Sequence to fold (636 residues):
Amino acid sequence: MSMLFGILSFGSQQVLPEWQGQMQRAARCWPSDRQGLKSVGSGFLGIQQRDNTPQSVASRQPVIEEDVAAIFDGRLDNRTELARELALQDDITTPDDAFVLAAYRKYGPGFAKYLLGDFSIALLDRRANTLLLVRDHMGVKPLFVARANGLVAFASSMAPLVRLPFVDCREDSLWIVDFLESVKVSPDDTPYLGIKSVPPATVMEFGTGVESHERFWRLPKPGELPVHDLTDEQAVARFSELFEQAVACRLPGIGDTASEFTAGLDSSAVVATAAPLMEQQGRGLHTFSHVLPEDTPSPAKQVGNERADIGDILTQYPGLRHHWITDEDTDQLTAMARTIRAHGGLQRRDLNSIGQQLPELMQRHDLRVLLSGFGGDQLVTSHGAGYPHSLAKEGAWDALRAFTEHEATTRARLRQAAFRTNFGRKSWGAAVRVLRAVEELTKARSSRFGKALSHGYPFRRAAFPSRPVAGSVEEREHTVITHPLISYRLQDSAVGAGSFGFEYRYPMLDIRLLEFCLSLPATVKRTAVMDRRMVRLAMAGKLPDKVRLRHRKAGSVPSAFVNHMRSINRFTELYRESFGNPLACSYVDLGRMVEESEQARRMGTFGKNVSKRQLMRAAELCLWTKYVEEEVGTSG
Fold:
């Protein structure tokens, strides 16, 4: 992943040379193959360029053609189609940034809707005196922006921005409370009042007296896509075709490629699809599996282990270069502190903050692409939450009866009673009212943090759930895949990985695959006895049946539990050291955190009153306040 950065002035304020130096110094922490910096009008554009596709080797950025200058990070998946439209050569001598400039010249500010892939772009039109900041459809590539007094500064991480004296680095109190409470409301807010994320699928335009936001794509809502009238065989064939295309588009890279491998259905499907494609190209596929150390004591084993099932898949694909990730040497607080420096602030979903073994192996083997199965659970291979709602809405009463009779949980029995009551009238409305009442029995947890009540907790959590409690399969899937939690995961993981010199790619978030899966009827996606049906059928013969057909797996990063418990004394020390920190103490009852940590050490497991995640969020807040004092200075 390349680091983009720059400052432009659209007012009387001049861009000072020391600001350029501050951003350059911050950006140099990111691994790169070359650097580029150009003065452009009333400011500058800069890049720490990292080659992650064969075409990027020919790129020398910033690229300037007459009145247009641009910097680009990412990958275009529709180069063949664009080459025909833009009269360009689709070969390794034509980098993606050339396609971007040509698309802008032909289509103008709306050019982004013609691009397909993962990308972030900064483009300056000196004739129109406008700056465009663009982020891809799902927000895989990060881009942050700060504005003040006619100045516009941007970067791929907050780190180059927080040191600029004109950026408002006061904390966003509501964002921090939401961070502590694990609630995600807005995809563009950050811990700092003066820094925002460019929203996914958005073109932000800045100029003299001009600031606009325009979305160039959104995932169609349920009912906006034509429902496919396909047989099972046709649906599986089309799913397989789109999924293989999504994986293949994300394989081009420099050298070998890597993939996460949890033995879950999604990551296993990615590995099973990528392995033969990489073999055909004569390139290697490294796989990384987070597992517990062999000598892990009980009760840590409660988090589960996947060694045996992963081993079965490795037997089926002997060409894989596999690595077991235990993070036995990881000091969790050290990893968290490094992550804060890379992000320039608090982060929510960067898995590199949990352990360092995987990113260090990526660096050691010069692996620049890491495939991930993230996104499958949300839509592509979702479990079909809301299935009874969809069946009742479609009037599929026989299928609904079969589903409720198959289920054995208490909640399912309540559903069964509800539908038996309404089968005679076939009343969709009455059934939904009963189902909603059942699903809303879950009570909101009480808040654990100091400022939460003043910001409307615990009711705020109930008002912004990450997963809906009612609605059809299609409605729930659409809500989840467009929820800010997706944007935060992609953004934070990208920044963390980029600081180690690699990038994540997500076949399950290919928009062509997403739109197809969203259009499938619920009865095609699952039955009473089989959820995640498309991928299970598509993987027949490619995965062992005990993995392909199972319905439960262990956690994706089981070592996180062990590492936290191993570092529990250091967490306790950090809380105590922060007793005199007014910022940390205004949000967190640090005395309570000390008590809970000491209890976890004595018991060998975490209590129910304060979760492991809450303890880690409190620790991250303490580390961030130190970062603000030491690095941000008076601007914080």
Summary: The longest strand covers residues 68-76. The CA atoms of residues 446 and 458 lie 6 Å apart. The radius of gyration is 25 Å.
